[in-house]
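Hey,
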Amino acid sequence: MFNRILLLSLFFLFQSCSFYSFKGSTPSHINSLVISPIINKTSEFYLTDLLNDKFLNSILLENFIEIVDYENADSKLDLKIISLNDNPSVYKIDNNESYEVVNEWKISINIEIIWYDLINNEELFKKNVSEWATYSLGIDIGADGLDNDLDGLIDDQDEDEYGTPREGATRIALEKISKRIINELTSTW
């Protein structure tokens, strides 16, 4: 008798877990998405292609919605790169010259996201998302001794820390933004 109750309990437990997906968090009538061409308001023209690649890779990995053309889409996503700011982050005083030297730079990227429901002809949400990463000038991002994205990993321990300093930090910030966009899409409802 105890074995039957245990088996029945396990059956219901696994059955309820087997239907879990992200689909339950988006409107039930939205099964597909078209991504409009990304608008870039900065002078950093490579950001458009880099964001497009990072975002498409993230959305394909998550596999929560089908990407289609406009004629077959239930929803549309507009992405606009609003700004890229590159500011000094950590200074030190140069003892020989008595002036400040920048040790670390912080790159911040701001993106506007608008998700439209094409079936009901309404805006689902409009949000701004910002992310950042740090870098040191003149030192490869994979050998700079910094945790460029604050994930607890440094240099060769972190698979996303590679390349030239500024480009690597830009790539890391856009990867973080891509994950945030996915999070916004899947946590809307």
